[in-house]
Amino acid sequence: MVLLSGGLDSATVLAIARGQGYELNALSFSYGQRHIWELEAATRVAAAIGVAQHRTVQIDLRAFGGSALTAAIDVPKGRSTEDMAHGIPITYVPARNTIFLSFALAWAEVLGASDIFIGVNALDYSGYPDCRPEFIEAFEKMANLATKAGVEGRQMLKIHTPLIALSKAAIIGKGIELGLDYGLTSSCYDPSSTGEPCGECDSCLLREKGFRENGIEDPLRKS
User: Fold this and answer.
1) Are the C-beta atoms of 109 and 152 separated by less than 8 Å?
2) Run of H or E residues at 19
3) 109 Cα distance to chain centroid
4) Which of 10, 169, 183, 205 sits CB 3.0–4.6 Å from 5 for a disulfide?
5) Are 8 and 187 within 8 A, CB to CB?
6) What are the beta bridge partners of residue 77?
């Protein structure tokens, strides 16, 4: 079970899981995000890498708002990496990873899958509380107490976070090593109606920095 947003990180995680020999089931979410274009990318990535099933779940987190991704709040643009490293940014979506992992837990129990992969990263987004190792550890413990399969001893769930301590450059390097086509992905928080990245949001700037540090050009930025 791989949580697949269509972004650079989740695509890399899907490629890593494939490289480790897992049969892949991908789970995406249409949650009212302004960057809905990422779901087109998720479909492309799932098809290119090859998955047994790819499901997209509909949840409307606009009902709660509280984030630049789900409410009428401007996406921050042009921030320095120093600015990004401090505080919890307005692009944080309240409880998003808790919600996503809960859905993944439900489908994993139905499928009899014991491994959930998620592309959280505590290095680039240190301010996101639901990307920290302690959150993942706590959720994994809870998950194994929360299902029929778990309490009956038929399933011991493991949440894999292969990117959690990697820089964006290291993540991209790993994906390139695995033959991942990053031209299929979409990272921008505020893309155009045709999916072109803004180039100025935190996600775009970190992505650009990662490719630059690998000495290559982002395939989405080529003219």
Assistant:
1) no
2) helix 8-19
3) 21
4) 10
5) yes
6) 201
Domain range 2-213, CATH class: alpha beta
CA dist., res. 20 & res. 23, Å (int): 9
Q: Which residues pair with 25 in a beta bridge?
A: 53
- Tell me, what DSSP letter sits at residue 75? P
Fill in the amino acid letter for 222.
Answer: K
Instruction: Say which residues have a Cβ less than 8 Å from residue 111's Cβ, sequence separation at least 6.
Output: 1, 25
Where on the phi/psi map is residue 23: left (φ > 0), alpha (ψ -120 to 50), or beta?
Answer: beta
Q: Is the pLDDT of residue 223 over 50?
A: no
Q: Which residue has the tokens 């949580």?
A: 3
Residues across the chain: 223
Our measurement of the distance from residue 147's CA atom to the centroid of its chain's CA atoms, rounded to an integer in Å, reads 24
What pTM did the predictor assign? Answer: 0.95
Dihedral Cα 209, 161, 102, 29, nearest 10 deg: 30
pLDDT, tens only, 142-200: 999 998 988 888 889 999 999 999 999 999 999 999 999 999 999 999 999 888 999 99
Cβ–Cβ contacts within 10 Å for residue 21, how many?
6
Residue 2 pairs in a beta bridge with: 26, 117
**Cα–Cα distance, 115 to 20 (Å, whole number):** 12
39: three-class secondary structure by DSSP: helix
Q: Report whether pLDDT(105) > 50.
A: yes
